[in-house]
């Protein structure tokens, strides 16, 4: 059956990829991409941050397999330019754009202390991916100052001074919406392993863009910042006891030298691990932060069926965690156990990077079966799934990163694969 599912999915993705493109509308003055077909009212016209990045990875694979080089280029470049045009002078970039305007939660401005979340650190990676496919960075040269302001905003307003780790401002729109390490926790209190993994790759991607534009000295400065972040992740977020990465709690009062109760032995730690087992712990494999020995230990954890491994991939939260549930929810989206296409894909990519080819193949085959069964039964794909039965939980015609199954199929067939930066 797997060959049938592969063929059906490949045909479906290639035939429907164009449904994720939109023409300029309202404040979106350039063509752009969206996560779903026009049949999905929630996602059909909105330009989302990390969604658009993975859509580019998919569209690159479609171009590669059909020989239609450049078919989607105006939509991918337009996506980036739309975000750049709505980035303010302080580097604040919206996380979502609709034709009627950007979505902002609260006030993200300098006047408000940059106290809200913004676009996730993925847009530079999206640009670097497009540069690699085109073979030239000239098209993004005029956007470099805006990208630099965006990254400087992260390093200035999202970085914890004591640890050097990046934190979320709030629990709003963090991508993995209801991650218990972030959700309902105090503002600016979580150094998220997800956020730090993304930011590490984003800093490396900016270094790559600068080198492509013959600015090598500047490129190496940004690569140094990436290494500083990786060092902070391994120092503060790796747990040698459990053999995995976790997010960390930063919510400590400042040390008061006049406080007699604590003066004899004030705290000597700057963070404490939040030992919540979710799929984000595997992102340092995708990011390339982990050592080979660390990766080996995490591979072992990934195989444990009592926690993460299910019939159809990787549970987004360990089944042994108290908040584990599989309910349908889109505000927030539910990442408390269901299988998502993107979590399967990123774990698959991490396994590939560290040479665990058999494990990567098994996970890719599970994803093909999950989506193949859904397509055969319903004629479309869904947003997330029951990890044990493969039954779709919600959101028909969700395309987006589910279409990365095309890249996984290419891997399984031994054909060239487009990968993110």
Number of helices: 12
Count of domains: 1
Radius of gyration: 21 Å
**Helices and strands: which structural class?**
mainly alpha
Please outline the major beta sheet.
3 strands, antiparallel
Strand content: 5-15%
Please give the number of β-strands: 15
Order of helices and strands: HEEEHHEEHHEHHEEEEHHEEEHHEEH
Name the CATH class. Answer: Mainly Alpha
Please mark out the parts with pLDDT under 50 across 5 or more consecutive residues, or reply none. Answer: none
- Find the CATH topology: Glycosyltransferase
Shape: globular
| Global mean pLDDT | 96
First and last CA, distance:
32 Å
Cross-sheet strand order for the largest sheet? 3-4-5
Keywords: Glycosidase, Hydrolase
InterPro entries: 6-hairpin_glycosidase_sf (IPR008928), 6hp_glycosidase-like_sf (IPR012341), Glycoside_hydrolase_63 (IPR004888), MGH1-like_GH (IPR054491)
EC number: 3.2.1.-
Domain Mannosylglycerate hydrolase MGH1-like glycoside hydrolase: 47-398
Structure overview:
The chain is mainly alpha-helical and 421 residues long. The chain has one domain (1-252, 271-413): Glycosyltransferase (Alpha/alpha barrel). Helices cover 41% and strands 9% of the residues. It has 12 helices and 15 strands. The chain has helices spanning 2-16, 49-66, 73-85, 123-134, 144-157, 193-212, 216-236, 283-287, 292-302, 341-353, 357-378, 405-413, and strands at residues 21-22, 32-33, 47-48, 96-98, 101-103, 190-191, 238-239, 244-245, 247-249, 272-274, 309-310, 313-314, 339-340, 382-385, 392-396. Strand 4 (96-98) and strand 5 (101-103) form a beta hairpin. The chain is globular. The mean pLDDT is 96.
């Amino acid at each position: 059956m797997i060959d049938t599912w592969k063929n059906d999915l490949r045909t479906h993705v290639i035939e429907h990829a164009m449904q994720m493109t939109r023409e300029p509308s309202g404040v979106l003055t350039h063509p752009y991409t969206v996560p779903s077909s026009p049949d999905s009212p929630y996602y059909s016209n909105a330009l989302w941050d990390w969604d658009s990045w993975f859509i580019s990875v998919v569209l690159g694979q479609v171009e590669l397999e059909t020989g239609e080089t450049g078919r989607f280029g105006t939509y991918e470049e337009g996506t980036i330019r739309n975000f750049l045009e709505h980035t303010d002078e302080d580097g604040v970039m919206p996380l979502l754009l609709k034709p009627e305007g950007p979505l902002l939660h609260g006030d993200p401005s300098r006047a408000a202390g940059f106290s809200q979340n913004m676009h996730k650190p993925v847009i530079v990676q999206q640009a670097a991916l497009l540069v690699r496919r085109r073979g030239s960075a000239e098209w993004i040269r005029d956007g470099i100052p805006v990208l630099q302001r965006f990254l400087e905003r992260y390093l200035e307003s999202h970085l914890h001074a004591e640890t050097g780790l990046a934190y979320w401002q709030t629990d709003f729109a963090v991508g993995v919406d209801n991650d218990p390490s972030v959700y309902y926790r105090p503002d600016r209190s979580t150094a998220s392993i997800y956020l730090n993994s993304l930011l590490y790759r984003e800093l490396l991607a900016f270094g790559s863009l600068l080198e492509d534009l013959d600015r090598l000295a500047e490129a190496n400065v940004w690569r140094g910042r990436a290494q500083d972040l990786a060092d902070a992740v391994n120092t503060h977020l790796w747990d040698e006891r459990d053999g995995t990465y976790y997010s960390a709690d930063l919510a400590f009062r400042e040390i008061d030298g006049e406080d007699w109760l604590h003066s004899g032995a004030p705290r000597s730690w700057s963070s404490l691990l939040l030992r919540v087992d979710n799929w984000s712990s595997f992102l340092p494999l995708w990011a390339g932060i982990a050592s080979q020995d660390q990766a080996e230990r995490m591979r072992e954890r990934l195989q444990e069926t009592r926690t993460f491994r299910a019939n159809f991939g990787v549970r987004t939260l360990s089944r042994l965690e108290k908040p584990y549930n599989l309910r349908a929810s889109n505000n927030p989206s539910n990442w408390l156990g269901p299988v998502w296409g993107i979590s399967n894909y990123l774990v698959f990519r991490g396994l590939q990077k560290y040479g665990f080819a058999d494990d990567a193949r098994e996970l890719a085959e599970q994803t093909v079966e999950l989506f193949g069964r859904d397509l055969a039964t319903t004629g479309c794909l869904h947003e997330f799934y029951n990890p044990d039965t493969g039954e779709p939980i919600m959101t028909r015609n969700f395309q987006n990163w589910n279409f990365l199954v095309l890249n996984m199929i290419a891997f399984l067939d031994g054909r060239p694969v487009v990968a993110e930066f």
